[in-house]
Design brief:
With 158 residues, this protein is α/β, with parallel strands linked by helices. It is built from six helices and five strands.
């Protein structure tokens, strides 16, 4: 069993994230979902709320734990401090790869931390946290796209 770290802001977590993290747990056995905060982003949910939604989402899944990543930590250093040398990132499309590949290369060069990419299921390629928030802001139904914890946070739990 190898510990891998799956970092992200998860604002909010959606079914595309869930699919990647679930697959990573099956492949590697142990996944740390590291909920990050980026001061350059405007968040809909606080760090504590995002952690709580992810924890509730994965409470049923063996080998997955969720925690907030320290705000002052370099991601590669954080991964190593957890006893890992591998990150998992999900890819929806070529734009995701173009964004993620330079960061993966930098992390490998500065710390030896590798990044493994998992291609997301085509069922979720259109899905992003931004789209979920946009649809919900107009009272659109997001229940097919997010776990129950997020449905509850948006007041859409059936």
């Amino acid at each position: 069993m190898q510990l891998v770290v799956c970092p992200g802001s998860f604002d909010p977590i959606h079914n595309g994230h869930v699919e990647i993290i679930t697959r990573a747990a099956k492949i590697y056995g142990s996944v740390l979902v590291a909920v990050a905060h980026n001061s350059a982003k405007k968040y809909r949910f606080s760090l504590e709320e995002r952690v709580a939604m992810a924890q509730e989402t994965f409470e049923y899944l063996d080998g997955v734990r969720v925690e907030a990543m320290p705000q002052d930590a370099l991601l590669a250093d954080y991964v190593r401090a957890q006893g890992s040398t591998l990150m998992i990132k999900g890819l929806r499309n070529s734009q995701d790869f173009e964004y993620e590949a330079p960061m993966a290369s930098m992390n490998r060069h500065i710390s030896g931390v590798e990044t493994s990419f998992l291609v997301g299921d085509t069922k979720w390629t259109h899905l992003s946290s931004t789209i979920v928030k946009e649809v919900a802001s107009y009272d659109g139904n997001i229940t097919a796209f997010v776990p129950r914890s997020v449905q509850r946070a948006f007041g859409q739990l059936n």
